[in-house]
Each structure stands twice: as C-alpha cells, then as structure tokens.
Amino acid sequence: MNAIINDIEVIKTKSSKISEVDFSNLKFGNTFSDHMLVCDYKNGKWQAPKVVPYQPISLDPSAKIFHYGQSVFEGMKAYKDANENVWLFRPLDNFKRLNISSKRLAIPELPENYFMDGLKTLLQVDSNWIPKDEGSSLYIRPFVFASGNGFHASPADEYKFIIATAPSGAYFSGKVRVLIEQKYSRSANGGVGFAKAGGNYAGQFYPTQLAVEKGYQQVIWTDDNTHEYIEEAGAMNIFVRINDTLITGPTSDRILDGITRKSIIQLAESEGIPVEVRKLSVHEVVAAAKDGSLKEMFGAGTAAVISPIAGFGYKDEDYDLPELEDTYAAHLKKRITDIQTNKTDDPFGWRYEVKS
Amino acid sequence: MNAIINDIEVIKTKSSKISEVDFSNLKFGNTFSDHMLVCDYKNGKWQAPKVVPYQPISLDPSAKIFHYGQSVFEGMKAYKDANENVWLFRPLDNFKRLNISSKRLAIPELPENYFMDGLKTLLQVDSNWIPKDEGSSLYIRPFVFASGNGFHASPADEYKFIIATAPSGAYFSGKVRVLIEQKYSRSANGGVGFAKAGGNYAGQFYPTQLAVEKGYQQVIWTDDNTHEYIEEAGAMNIFVRINDTLITGPTSDRILDGITRKSIIQLAESEGIPVEVRKLSVHEVVAAAKDGSLKEMFGAGTAAVISPIAGFGYKDEDYDLPELEDTYAAHLKKRITDIQTNKTDDPFGWRYEVKS
Ligand SMILES: Cc1ncc(COP(=O)(O)O)c(C=O)c1O
Ligand SMILES: Cc1ncc(COP(=O)(O)O)c(C=O)c1O
C-alpha cells in the first residue's frame, strides 16, 4: 500500500474508520482521521517525514516528554469550500511559530518543507475527513515532543514531530463567562508564555477548574506581578470594545502571538474600526463596565475563532456585558470565516489552497 | 511468574539485564532496572498498582501528555549499607510533595499506600540493582502523567503513575560555575514553580544552553519581576555562606520546597551554624564576593546532594569563590550522606528502612 506523494512516503491504512463517524454531530478534537504524519529527529537531524496510519506511539518510560515537559504544538484548521477545494489559513505563520516555540524549548527547529509538504500530503490522503458543514472544520494538530531517554534534566537527543487531525465542531457552545484572575498566573517575564509549550496549558487547568466551580468557563490571565493588566485567555487572545474602539494588549514574552488576533486587528483596521494595541488594565475595563462604555469582550483563537464573552467576574463582583444587535464579534467572525472558507475574496492573501 | 508481595501483584521479567551493567562505572539516570511500578487512573479512581518488567509505554498520539505538559515527578534515592540493608531518605516527604504538585497540575492525588507499598515492593523485587559503592545509589523516579486522549485543552480523564529506577553515579562531576540569570525566568508568581511539574524543566533548557555556551554549567534563577533575588538552580536549592552565616531564600509559590534544603537547614542549626532563611539579593552576594565575606555557595538537591559552586557570572563579570579548607558544603554533605547510608545515627528520624 506504499506510495510516494509530494516526495513523501505514504503508508495507507488497510481499514478506514470514516464510516463510523457522524459528521453532522462532531465534538471538538476527539475523533481522529485515518492517518498522521510522523517525522523523527535522531542522529542530529530530522529524518524524512512519512504519512502512516494513525496509531499508538511507543516510548521508553524514561522518555523526556514524561519528565520534563519538552513539547510544543500548533493548532490549525482545514476547510472545504462548496467546490470541495481545501483551504488552510496562514499556515506558514503556524510553521514559523512552531519553530519559535521549539527554539525556546531547546527543541531542534523543523525544515519548512517537512512541515508544509508533510501537511499537504496528509490532507490529500485524508481529504475525505475534512468536514463541509458550516461551523465544522478539520482541526490540525502539529506537535513536537522529546522522545529521547534519560532521567538527566537536560534536552533530549531524539524528538518526534507528528501531525494528527480531527474533524471537529465548535470549541465552545455559546457565549462564555470569564473570571479575571487575581491569584494564579499563566506565565513569567522571561518565561515561555509566548511559546505554544505544553507546560503552559497544564498550569492553567487547576485555576480554570476553580473558576468553573464558581460558574465561569474561562480564566482571563493577568500579569503575574501586579494582576492589573489583561493578558490573554487559555487558548485565545482577548479583545475589548470600549465605545467604538477595539483594544487588545500588546504581545510580549508572556503572551502568545495569535494568528487570529493579528488577522482581527488587520481586518478591523481595514474596515475603519479604531483599533488600539496597548496595555489594558483591569481597572479600565471595570470602569468601562460600570459607566456603560464597555460594549463587547471576545476571545480570538484558531479553535474557537471568535468567542463572545457574556460577562466577567473580578474580585467577587460580576459584570454583565450588554446584548448588542450589531457586534464587532459577529461581524469580524463572519469576515474571517468567510475568508477561511473561500466564500469571499481574500484581500490579505491569507488563504492557502491545498491542491490535490 | 506472578506473585503477590505486600498486597501488590508482581510480574517478574523473564530475562534480567543486570549482568550487562558495569556497577563500578555508572552515569546518572541512563541505566534502568528490571522492573517498574505501574498504576492507572481510570473511571475516576486509581487502580491497584502492579510491578511489571520495565517496558515501553504505548499511547495514543492525542494523549494529553504530548500536548499539554500535564505531568509531575519526584526524585529520590535508595542506599544499601554495609549489611545490605536498604534505606530511603524521608520518602513520605516525596509522596506528599508529589500530591502537592499533582493538585496544582489538576492531576488526581495518589493514595499513600499505593505510593509507599508500591515503592517498597519495587525495591524488594529489584534490590540487586541498588549500588553499594560510595557515591552511587539507586535513583528513583516516581512520575504521573496524563495518558487520556483528546485535543481539548482541559485535564485528562486518565493518568499513569509509574516508578522507574536507575542505578546511578554522581550527577555533576566536580565543582560547577553558575550564571546568575538576568533575562530568562523559571517561574511566575501564582504559577507552578513550587510544583515538580515537567514544564518547569523544559523551560530551563534553552537559557541553560546559553549559559553553557558562555562556560557555565548551571543557571541561578532570580525572580521574574526584578531579577534581584536569588531563587534556585535547575534542580537544586541554593545556599550562600557569608562570613559564617548560611543563608538561603525562603520557599514560595515560585520555588520548590527541597527536601535536601530543609534537611541542611536543620542539620546546620543543630550544629550551631547560624542559618538565615530570608530574601537574598544578588546585590548582597556580589558585594560579599567583592569584600571577601562570601565564603561558599552550593546547591542542594537529591540528585546532586550538595554541589559546591566554584564561581558565578553576573552581568558579564565573573566572581570566584575562595578555596577553603573546611567548608560547610563538605561537612554537611558528609553528615547528610552518612545519615542516608546508615553510617551514623539518625537523630532526626529521616531514614526509612525497606525491609525485605
Ligand atoms: C495561549 C494562547 N493564546 C492565544 C491563542 C490563539 O492563537 P491563534 O489565533 O494563532 O490560534 C492560542 C491558541 O492557539 C493559545 O494557545
Ligand atoms: C527545581 C528544583 N529545586 C530544588 C530541588 C531539590 O529538591 P530535593 O532536595 O527535594 O531533591 C529539585 C530537585 O528535586 C528541583 O527540581
């Protein structure tokens, strides 16, 4: 069953699982496509990637991923348009960010062609797995982790780069309520917050559980030093609309440079929406909520696209956002998803076609 | 080959690897004993642990350990005395700390008997693997990681707790030179620095590589906000001797509460050495280095025990420590290892015998 596609070896599964999948009822990220891309780093270099059947990974108990959290990942989506053409959104930005993350985690950087050709080949092989329904897409998870062995706390000598995909529905259902965190933090100055490093996520689970127990769905992280400035959410950057101005914090070494965030900024600016990228204090947001100038808050990220926020908690007080008719969130979400799914033209050159 | 020891099921290996091991020439943590303890969390509870042959672990590519760094670990040592009796050092403190770490990482806490009886049984089964030579010991690595599946950034529903062991020699050979970090950081206020979470270690690799390129072996972390206060090293807490006073920083949510550290404090106090647990600024250490009152610096941790520091770099200047005849480091190291290896009495009740 071996083939070579785009110079990449492809070993196809003998039994597809696709007939078991209910594409009209997809959850997020828990149904996996038939194949995955695998690429090993050993003897000082990345070896040629292969497409193989989706299958378990076998590791020594001393593999460093289990002990030292040496891993990075990306999140992307593939969309199918009405003509069955397949599209990615700014994939080179994900590739570059993966390498930025890898560098900070002392993981060897990947060659661009292994990532891009590997991804294209995988999508060609599993193109049947890309959902067509509105609101659904093929969630793509490239990740790199330390597979080399040993209990010495130092970088591994072997790594695995894998791309796995999951046909997925929405990440959140409906609006979310968020808690502006005043005790726990996501990242340190000089730390790894700007990297999509595995450990950044595990550290958020417990504070998020505490927030969920209080009736919120997400935590809004603030700076670890003063807790006065709004940083980002678990897997989304944060936008606030005060009067008609859209405000988002600047990126830094504590904050992920989100691709959705920067696309939203560009889209909004191109439509004449006033956008400010500047430090945003909790104080300002609370004051705006109190005087009625706070019109909207929303998260922006690949998984959730744009996720409107219904209200927030801060120091034991709850603040509700107004129910507006025409929101920036809804408008910008439509703009960006229309571009992503090839329903409109693409003035910024963000779309990337995966030709078969 | 199945047996029940201490209520724990034991499946012995059919072919021991012990004859391949050169016990007089052990490195740190890269030779693994014949067996391991495995315990699975599923259906909402920890299942009974088992001792099984050391063997690869098979995981779905979506297992959360690969993506979200949800893992914690411990580091302990077992020693064999002249009469072949087997000793641990304060093992309950490791157990408690593992659960403290787990809680912060949203990992279900382990029952004490699974940890302690599992550990004892494993050491009984692999007692031949515990080195007898001075300076060698059986390094013990308990760890817990998210084995449950899915790309949703939320805690896993399944975990594995494993104890693996490795007969080991010294962690460092000789004195180390350290760099007092002024740019990168290890942990945030309100973060996971006090937990032995995998992600804390991966984040240190790159800054440590940069330090190594400059001729240092280790980084001394400072607080992420001002970089003015000395926190700890990669896997060691830090002590400084100014004149005759031993000083170490207080623990906090950014710093691991080291078992070696607290033992050293108690030992030193019991011998009348003046000990101060207080914030220690880089400024004070540099001033003491300049005026000659800085006598010693050393790291303290299970793997390295006590690791004397020969000198440090700070803002492009290098500072050498004096070569003293009688050091606190050497004296305290002998005191603690004599207690650990049952060469002397144990006034604090730290030793714990593993009876066979
Ligand atoms: C911490 C964090 N912030 C923000 C984002 C949004 O980034 P992007 O828009 O590139 O998906 C993500 C998810 O990718 C994230 O994990
Ligand atoms: C970050 C860190 N600090 C300090 C220590 C020392 O702790 P202990 O003495 O309990 O081994 C360790 C190693 O265990 C560590 O990983």
From TrEMBL, chains A, B:
It is an enzyme of class 2 (transferase). It comes from the Bacteria. Transmembrane segments: none annotated. Gene3D superfamilies: 3.30.470.10, D-amino Acid Aminotransferase, subunit A, domain 2. Signal peptide: none annotated. Pathway: Amino-acid biosynthesis; L-leucine biosynthesis; L-leucine from 3-methyl-2-oxobutanoate: step 4/4; Amino-acid biosynthesis; L-isoleucine biosynthesis; L-isoleucine from 2-oxobutanoate: step 4/4; Amino-acid biosynthesis; L-valine biosynthesis; L-valine from pyruvate: step 4/4. One of its GO terms (molecular function) is transaminase activity. It catalyses: L-isoleucine + 2-oxoglutarate = (S)-3-methyl-2-oxopentanoate + L-glutamate; L-valine + 2-oxoglutarate = 3-methyl-2-oxobutanoate + L-glutamate; L-leucine + 2-oxoglutarate = 4-methyl-2-oxopentanoate + L-glutamate. Its EC number is 2.6.1.42. The keyword Transmembrane helix does not apply. Its cofactor is pyridoxal 5'-phosphate. Keywords: Amino-acid biosynthesis, Aminotransferase, Branched-chain amino acid biosynthesis, Pyridoxal phosphate, Transferase. Acts on leucine, isoleucine and valine. Belongs to the class-IV pyridoxal-phosphate-dependent aminotransferase family. This is Branched-chain-amino-acid aminotransferase. It comes from Hyunsoonleella aestuarii. The lineage of its organism: Bacteria, Pseudomonadati, Bacteroidota, Flavobacteriia, Flavobacteriales.
